TrEMBL record:
EC number, as in UniProt: 1.14.19.9
InterPro entries assigned to the protein according to its UniProt record, in alphabetical order: FAD/NAD-bd_sf, Flavin_halogenase
Enzyme class per UniProt: oxidoreductase
Keyword Lipid biosynthesis found: no
GO molecular function: monooxygenase activity
Protein name: Tryptophan halogenase
Keywords on record: Oxidoreductase
């Protein structure tokens, strides 16, 4: 990039510092100057970032050592999320962060499993997954050369939010981002273009590009996702940590909402989500206490308004991420998807109409796919109670309806271009909510049944062997 180019990133907490660190790390060698405007934190000690495995790749780009990350944040690892019905009417299902089975010849394992189940196989899909099987045994699962040949096994983190934001702040400053702290900011416009921001005390800043890492600049018009989601209130709290930290989160469905437990070392972080139409704040607190079975401290209640920027790059301002429903904890993943796309489309100069058009083409589609994953949880859930009755009445996008229909018809997932969740996540969700494939791709029938049975036996033996080699969370953290 010729000449100087200044980017101002405005926001708060982990999103601000994740963006500032990534931009500074990637673009400073090209002469880009990154300035970070930090607004007061919105975090409390009861807040946690429950992350998906994709975040590790961004950490690697930022040269964040995992052992150092875990020490600085006192975080723990997670292999996925377990969804349970407090009424006990429906079996639990695990959304594990790993694949199930290995390819059989030239065809996908899942289609063979679907076919075998039609002919009497009584082995759950999770038994073929390294990650899911380890989670069920209370063990972690780490990728290595041997099991990488078999299939993907990943993990995320339960990151205490304040400590994580502090770590990212240090990284951003280390990579050269300049910090400007402010209690508030005012924006000066010329049409769609931000000409300057005012931070008070006669602090006046201009830039070639503004990056909104928290919907604080107001450049984008937000498109509401309210029709897809029943939740409009969320409670967060901290409870005592478990003596033996579980290796996955748990989401418990109750009649008026759901309660999630995110175990970590400092605390067990509890989230309760509900609709204010169906329960008061006091009733929600009582439901969260009952569902978690834990004493709650530091309770904070917030409103939730899901939506995304209609045009995330407007004028000279890029608004990152979206406001998701909290059920799968996708906020940070959606933010990462937007940030990585910005790095891919970052302009080579001050005339960036083409880059803006491409960003606005790709990013909303990617965010919509994440939205549909969360929406499917409500549209398909069979749980009883007024909350879930309202959930099943929410809208379903045309893409999601097509994806469900295709999966039910022939065990296949629709190949959407801007997909950021692996097929195994979708399979776990759809199967968990009772969407049973009625058939399978015809190519599956080319493999003789005896060969499939032999392959299945080898896979199950390999998974059992690998799981027994893995440590518990406590054992691993003690030496991490």
């Amino acid at each position: 990039m010729s000449g100087s180019f200044t980017v101002i990133v405005a926001g708060r907490d982990a999103p601000l510092w994740l963006a500032a660190a990534a931009l500074a790390r990637s673009l400073a060698p090209s002469g880009v100057k990154v300035e970070a405007v930090e607004l007061p934190s919105a975090l409390t000690p009861a807040d946690v970032y429950a992350t998906f495995p994709a975040l590790e790749a961004l950490h690697n780009q930022l040269r964040l050592d995992e052992a150092g990350l875990l020490r600085a944040t006192v975080a723990s690892l997670t292999l996925g999320q377990n969804f349970t019905d407090l009424a006990g009417a429906y079996p639990p299902f695990l959304h594990a962060y790993g694949s199930a089975g290995a390819r059989i010849g030239d065809s996908d394992f899942f289609a063979h499993w679907v076919k075998a189940r039609r002919y009497g196989l009584n082995v759950p899909l999770d038994d073929f997954s390294l990650t899911a099987a380890a989670a069920r045994q209370g063990r972690l699962m780490f990728p290595d050369e041997e099991n990488a040949i078999y299939g993907r096994c990943d993990y995320g983190y339960h990151l205490p939010a304040i400590a994580y934001a502090r770590l990212l702040r240090e990284a951003a400053i280390r990579y050269g981002a300049t910090l400007h702290a402010a209690d508030q900011l005012a924006v000066e416009h010329d049409g769609d273009t931000i000409t300057a921001i005012e931070l008070g005390e006669d602090r006046h800043f201009t830039a070639d590009l503004f990056v909104d890492a928290g919907n604080v600049l107001g450049a984008a018009t937000f498109h509401s996702w309210r029709e897809y989601f029943p939740v409009d209130r969320v409670l967060t709290a901290a409870a005592p940590a478990f003596a033996n930290i579980p290796v996955y989160a748990e989401n418990r469905a109750g009649p008026t909402g759901w309660t999630a437990l995110y175990p970590s070392r400092p605390a067990t972080y509890v989230t309760h989500a509900w609709s204010s139409v169906l329960a008061t704040d006091d009733e929600a607190l009582a439901a969260a206490s009952t569902a978690s079975g834990l004493p709650l401290a530091g309770v904070v209640i917030r409103a939730v308004e899901p939506g995304c920027p209609a045009q995330p790059w407007t004028g000279n301002t890029v608004t990152l991420g979206a406001s998701f429903d909290p059920v799968h904890g996708l906020d940070l993943l959606g933010f990462q998807v937007s940030l990585v796309q910005l790095l891919a489309d970052f302009p080579a100069g001050t005339g960036f109409a083409a880059e803006r058009a491409e960003y606005n083409r790709v990013t909303p589609e990617a965010l919509d796919r994440l939205r549909d994953f969360q929406s499917a949880h409500y549209a398909l859930a069979r749980y009883a109670g007024p909350f879930w009755e309202a959930a099943r009445a929410t809208e379903v996008s045309a893409d999601l309806a097509h994806a469900i229909a295709l999966f039910r018809a022939r065990a296949e997932l629709a190949p959407f271009e801007e997909e950021n969740l692996p097929p195994d996540s979708w399979r776990a969700l759809l199967l968990g909510h009772g969407v049973e494939p009625e058939s399978w791709p015809p190519a599956t029938d080319r493999v003789p049944p005896e060969e499939v049975k032999a392959q299945f036996r080898r896979m199950l033996g390999f998974v059992r062997e690998q799981v027994l080699r893995q440590p518990t969370q406590a054992e691993w953290l003690a030496r991490a």
